Amino acid sequence: xxxxxxxxxxxxxxxxxxxxxxxxxxxxxxxMFAFALWDRNRQTLFMARDRxxxxxxxxxxxxxxxxxxxxxxxxxxxxxxxxxxxxxxAIEDYFAFGYxxxxxxxxRQAHKLAPAHTLLWKVxxxxxxxxxxWDVSFxxxxxxxxxxxxxxxxxxxxxxxxxxxxSEVPLGAFLSGGVDSSAVVAAMAGLSESPVKTCSIGFDxxxxxxxxxxxxxxxxxxxxxxxxxxxxxDFGLIDRLASLYDEPYADSSAIPTxxxxxxARKRVTVALSGDGGDETFGGxxxxxxxxxxxxxxxxxxxxxRHALFGTxxxxxxxxxxxxxxxxxxxxxxxxxxxxxxxxxxxxxxLRDDDRAQLFSPxxxxxxxxxxxxxxxxxxxRRAPTDDALSLIQYLDYNTYLPGDINTKVDRASMAHSLExxxxxxxxxxxxxxxxxxxxxxxxxxxxxxxxxxxxxxxLPNDVLYRPKMGFAVPLATWFRGPLRGEVQRVLKGDTxxxxxxxxxxxxxxxxDEHL
Length: 515
Hints:
Blueprint: H1 10-21, E1 34-39, E2 44-49, E3 58-61, E4 67-70, H2 74-77, H3 88-97, E5 110-112, E6 117-122, E7 129-132, H4 146-164, E8 171-174, H5 179-191, E9 197-203, H6 211-220, E10 224-230, H7 238-245, H8 254-265, E11 270-272, H9 277-281, H10 285-299, H11 302-315, H12 329-335, H13 339-347, H14 352-358, H15 361-367, H16 373-382, H17 388-398, H18 400-414, E12 419-421, H19 427-434, H20 449-455, H21 461-464, H22 475-480, H23 484-492, H24 494-497, H25 504-514
Parallel strand pairs: 8-9, 8-11, 9-10, 11-12
Antiparallel strand pairs: 1-2, 2-6, 3-4, 3-5, 6-7
Helix pairs in contact: 4-5, 4-20, 8-18, 10-13, 10-17, 11-12, 12-13, 13-16, 17-18, 23-25
């Protein structure tokens, strides 16, 4: 188009793209980004965030009309004129999900720009124009066989990884020993002339430790592998993490994620990760349970389900310490609900009845009937699918992935000046996977079927078909052991009770019961 570039920087591409296509420039960008652009000639502020919400962007308008924006919430809250009033609905959302979903923040006057959205604000206009520029479309291609899908997936993964290996600084990968990161490392090894630098975190508690599986992949591809062991009492990071996240965030895997970024930064400046694989290919265990439950919902009239399972959900005892087959109360409660409410119920860390007891009567009144499930219903109304698996994948793309997973990796990596790139969140790959029939993702209780089958020539079966472990830490052990005094001080003290949000008696009861 005749543009002359003065640098070799990807940032300059954004400026020329804006000059050429205006707000539509984001349609042509590929990868992760969050940027703000000021066009002096048009007196226009333009901001945009990538499609899957890998990178964060916060903004606020002060009472005097000034606009604040930045990657971190603290960019806004340090301003002396910013009103630091908490958002009651964000508190309700947080205690349901363990994070605050876009576009809310913990503060009433500050906002996140949601993934796949732009913000256009011209001088003189009272408010910005916020628009969505991309969405996942689930239109299954029923003609594609499993073998064809596997071949196409290997090609698309290789292309995505190849693009993200372009770097002028040392580059490596996280290798947890799970399917997703192992698939990324296998693709990198096939593209690299020198050994891929890989790193993993091990735990000194066997039930949390995946390092043996990471070692298997590292040996197969002769990677330059480095492992560090995190002790089970690595809770000294809690205060540090609070300062990084700027608002409540409850995913305990933030601790090992911080450590693996710290480890990677000792050897590389850019690291590829396997994040996004569970959402894209149907890997979470909860997907399997939801699809089974939905099949039963579809066979029973709603009135019968509400009466039968609603009653069972109320009278069945809560048996959290028993094997899963005996913990039927949550399943009965889910079956009594519609698909969206049921999924919200299953992913909530504190469910509706628990939050109702936790919150004070005054705070419940302030909520005015608002419930966190409205977040899911808002996205579900826009969902381009009624397929049981596709619907909850869509909900996760819009809530859990940006609000929990991407938030965690961004804060942990940026704390160490490490750039993390996510090949499994390449939007052409995501769009392709969304068109796969659900039967190629979840079949016979096996999640990520197409990814595992595609990787069978490249990865050991012990890596592909072992039970999913996650990236957890032994919180219960900490709370009953070395953090016991701190837990009691915080939960039974005046600080939380004095907020007016909580029922002090309930705080004391759940503390005593847990300890």
